[in-house]
Each structure stands twice: as structure tokens, then as C-alpha cells.
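User: Reviewer 2 asked us to show a designed sequence for the structure in our supplementary figure. I'm pasting the C-alpha cells here. Could you produce the per-position amino acids so we can include them in the response letter?
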């Protein structure tokens, strides 16, 4: 059982002046230690929602509660934001005239000198910033600035960390390394994390819960397993990887490229296919087939499936 703060959105809405609502009626509760991902098409208000949750934008309806207390917006307090909530986005909020190490250390005044030095070194190592630790932050690359922003946010030891597309400049190695670190840290610190991402694989790997946001509201909430294997529509399912659609006796069946059989099985239906091409993809080969209605499906296998004329789903 987690203890600590809770972040709760109660029927909130937001709109810019003289414009229609970006979103309305949004309900959400994030528990300490939970990693919650928000996915959906561009322009649905995901980034705006995070800014509202951070207290940086004034909501137009509803309320946001943190530990049962109302989160005030910028129209209600002198300095926007909340000390227990950190937001990391593409703005790279850091002091350009301090070094990388100094930017991190400036967030750690709540620690004694030895603990501060130790934590700075831990973050420099995790985010692979040791080589630029003594450079002014204005002199480092965009990718390094993004990593520094995340390191500074974690240095504050917030109860809630809000991440807006935080890994877009990361290579595969850093992506996996820092994602794993965040997941472990969230559990150890009981830190709630809300991640906005267009990367479905990212959401599946790191989340306890995934929210689908479109048409100005959160339409679905599900576990990663449900998001991947039990999508309600082709639109939703394709956020998390390849998804096939076939019609058998006028009924639509959705299945992932690994959810098929090459031999008859109980309760599985036959689908006629025509091989089109294959493509190597590291651990598996993508085999593309055409259906009778000219639509295309893809099947994953360890080999090329040139001779296959029928599959079972």
C-alpha cells in the first residue's frame, strides 16, 4: 500500500481565451509510486493537461487536488507551480550561466554537502553527463539539455513527476537505461509519474496504467496488457504496435502479428492469404500478406512464410 500525496483531477477543463475548450470533464487520480502514461493523437491536449496538473495554466472548470488540498493556478498565486510537482518538457528550464553540475546541485539545498555531492554524481552518471559536467548549460547539445532537465527535476525529489515526451532525443541505450532508472526510482520513492508519449512501446514497458486521450477527454483507461491484447478499435490498438484487421462472415477480428496459427486449432477461424513480401526486423521477420479484399496484414515469424496460403486466428 502506497502512502503519501495523491494527485486528483476532478472534472477539469481548459480553454485559451475566446476559443473552444482544449479538453473538458477530465477525471484522473494518480497514486504515489504509480507510472501512468497518456497517449493519443496530436492536438488532443495532452501537453496542456500536464501544464494544468503542474499548476502552470489556469483551469477553466473543476479542481485539482494534491493531498486533498486545492492546487492553485497562476491566477491564484504569485509564483506558478507546486513544490511537490516537477514538469519536464521541451523548454529545458535551466540556468544557462551555471555549469551542468551546478544546475543539478542548485536543486539540492535540502541536503547536506556530502549527500548533495553524492546525489549530483549519481545523476551525472545515470544521465551520462559526466563529460560535460563542467560546461555551462548553454554550451551543451539539445539532447544533453533534455537529460539535464530531467536530472534537475529528479534532484528536487518531487512527489509527482510530469514528463512530456522526455525521451525524443535519446538513443536506444539511454532510453532503456533512464527508463529503467525512473521506474525503479518511482517505486523506491513512492513518486507518481505521468508520462505523455507518442511511443506506444514506451507506454507498454514502463506504465502501470495507460490512458487514451482524444476528442478532448480521456476515453479509456487500461493496463498495458489490455492496451496491447484487448483493443476495442483499430484506431486505439495501433498506438501500441502493428494490429491486423480481418472480416469473417461480416464480423471484424483484430489480432496482433504474433496472434495466429499455421495449423487448425479449436475455436480459430481460417483466413486465406497471399504472400507479398518479407522484411527483416532483428528478432523476427515481418511477413506481409494480402487478403481477398486487398487489405494487407503482417505476421511475425522466425522465418519467411512464402508458402503460406492460409492462417488461423
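Assistant: Here is a per-position design you can include in the supplement:
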Amino acid at each position: 500500500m502506497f502512502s503519501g500525496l495523491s494527485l486528483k483531477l476532478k472534472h477539469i477543463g481548459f480553454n485559451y481565451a475566446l476559443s473552444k475548450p482544449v479538453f473538458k470533464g477530465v477525471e484522473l487520480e494518480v497514486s504515489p509510486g504509480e507510472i501512468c502514461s497518456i497517449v493519443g493523437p496530436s492536438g488532443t491536449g495532452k501537453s496542456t493537461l500536464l501544464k494544468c496538473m503542474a499548476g502552470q495554466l489556469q483551469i477553466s472548470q473543476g479542481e485539482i487536488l494534491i493531498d486533498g488540498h486545492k492546487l492553485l493556478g497562476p491566477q491564484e498565486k504569485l509564483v506558478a507551480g507546486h513544490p511537490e510537482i516537477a514538469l519536464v518538457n521541451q523548454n529545458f528550464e535551466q540556468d544557462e550561466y551555471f555549469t551542468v553540475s551546478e544546475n543539478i546541485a542548485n536543486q539540492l539545498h535540502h541536503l547536506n554537502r556530502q549527500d548533495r555531492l553524492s546525489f549530483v554524481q549519481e545523476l551525472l552518471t545515470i544521465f551520462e553527463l559526466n563529460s560535460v559536467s563542467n560546461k555551462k548549460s548553454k554550451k551543451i547539445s539539445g539532447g544533453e539539455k533534455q537529460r539535464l532537465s530531467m536530472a534537475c527535476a529528479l534532484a528536487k525529489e518531487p512527489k509527482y513527476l510530469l514528463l512530456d515526451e522526455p525521451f525524443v532525443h535519446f538513443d536506444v541505450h539511454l532510453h532503456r537505461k533512464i527508463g529503467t532508472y525512473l521506474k525503479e526510482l518511482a517505486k523506491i520513492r513512492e513518486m507518481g509519474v505521468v508520462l505523455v508519449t507518442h511511443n506506444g512501446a514506451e507506454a507498454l514497458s514502463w506504465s502501470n496504467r495507460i490512458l487514451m486521450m482524444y476528442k478532448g477527454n480521456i476515453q479509456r483507461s487500461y493496463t498495458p496488457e489490455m492496451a496491447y491484447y484487448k483493443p476495442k478499435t483499430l484506431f486505439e490498438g495501433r498506438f501500441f504496435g502493428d494490429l491486423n484487421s480481418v472480416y469473417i462472415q461480416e464480423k471484424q477480428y483484430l489480432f496482433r502479428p504474433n496472434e495466429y496459427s499455421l495449423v487448425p486449432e479449436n475455436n480459430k477461424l481460417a483466413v486465406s492469404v497471399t504472400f507479398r513480401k518479407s522484411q527483416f526486423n532483428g528478432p523476427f521477420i515481418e511477413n506481409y500478406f494480402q487478403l481477398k479484399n486487398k487489405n494487407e496484414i503482417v505476421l511475425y515469424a522466425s522465418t519467411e512464410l512464402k508458402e503460406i496460403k492460409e492462417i488461423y486466428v
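For the response letter, you might also mention the following. The chain has a mean pLDDT of 92. The helical segments are 46-53, 100-105, 113-126, 142-155, 172-189, 200-206, 224-229, 234-237.
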